[in-house]
Amino acid sequence: MKCDVLVVGAGPAGCSAAAACGAAGLKTIVVERKPEIGVPITCSGAIGSYLLPYLPFKTPKNLLKHSIEGLEFIVDEVSYVRRGGPWSSYAIDRSAFDKWLSQRAVDSGADLIMSAEFIDATLDKSWGGGRAQIRKKDEIIEVDFKVMIGADGARSCVLETLGERVSDARMGQAVVYEYEGVTLESPELDQLYFGDFAPGGYAHIFPLSDNRANIGVGTIDSAADLRQCFQDFIALPRVKAQLKDGRPVLEKSGIVSFEPLSLRRQYGSVLLAGEAASQNIKPLVEGFLPAIICGDVAGKTAARHILKGESLSMYQRNLDRRLGLILRESDRLISLLEDISDLSGRKSYLLLSGLCGNLISPGEASKLALGDEEDITSRLESWNKSLFKQFLSNASERLAIIYLHCQAAVNNKIYKL
Fold this sequence. Notes:
Layout: E1 5-8, H1 12-23, E2 28-31, E3 46-48, E4 64-68, E5 70-75, E6 78-83, E7 89-92, H2 94-107, E8 111-113, E9 116-123, E10 130-136, E11 139-145, E12 147-150, H3 157-162, E13 171-180, E14 189-193, E15 201-207, E16 212-219, H4 226-234, H5 237-243, E17 247-251, E18 254-257, E19 266-267, E20 270-272, H6 288-308, H7 315-332, H8 334-342, H9 346-356, H10 362-368, H11 373-385, H12 387-414
Parallel strand pairs: 1-2, 1-12, 2-8, 5-14, 12-20
Antiparallel strand pairs: 3-7, 4-7, 5-6, 9-10, 10-11, 13-16, 13-17, 13-18, 14-15, 15-16, 19-20
Helix pairs in contact: 1-2, 1-6, 6-7, 7-12, 8-9, 9-11
């Protein structure tokens, strides 16, 4: 079997890449080890509104299930709310969205092969391209490709085959359940909780509607007993009151890449996209929309390489022109977030809350980590009480979003892929 582009993984990054390649007229094959798209779901189901303009398509309104005005950050009795701008979001039906993305790839001309597991690949270092081995039931299928896009998640087999995986890279793990029949305090707000129940991470209540929500705990602490952490979280009085009439109907637990899984995102004729390339946005580790955006860039980079002879090494440059500033700022937080997670006690939770809510800058967080817990509490409460400080924060964030959107629009015009 021969193709121009072989895409491994039919998640958001893979389907986005395949749609871009198919639209360019390339023979594109997508292989997915699971038997069904969108099952199981391993996502908390919230997407940031500010990222929607970066998408390579207009999002169908029926996929945006519930509008969220903002986020409430909670550490015991200390809490504050961020609204609008980068804090507004939508709850999505992730399974339906994944199916829509896969259909978009197929409609563009890509061939989708389900229950097909990537086994191995040999790269031609002289001429580029290579040959992959795919297992379909008891049959081994060989696929010759010019470019391969590895979009097969945080446990990427493509990355393992390349021998380039960073063995000690920290992973994020989460236990998440969808609940129905809940009595939410504020269905228009996501809730983030920080405490002993989420060491090195946070717990959340993400509304899906007025009476449905995703409830979960996530952490980068590999030693944490996440199942017990989840039980400790839902036993909190404030959480328990919201779940008293609810019941879990679907598990959505999973893992994400926190630290970079490899040193680069391009190896010869192979491009990495999505979780395989650690393309999520810290500190909240938002990965769904970045995967779609970066998958599109990977697909268009592959198309320019095959059709116009442009080097695949331009992939990182193309990423920088689309989403570069956001991803760079995100990666800059990794070591700081790890340092904070390694601290013990309430001070670490207050710092993490302030950093996640953008009330404490990375530089300030490093200094406050050396001080007293009361200094951090005072900082958060001072913002909470000052309408002027809230106005300045909100205005600067909205201006930053306008700048990022304008920058992306200009780059798209000048450096159109």
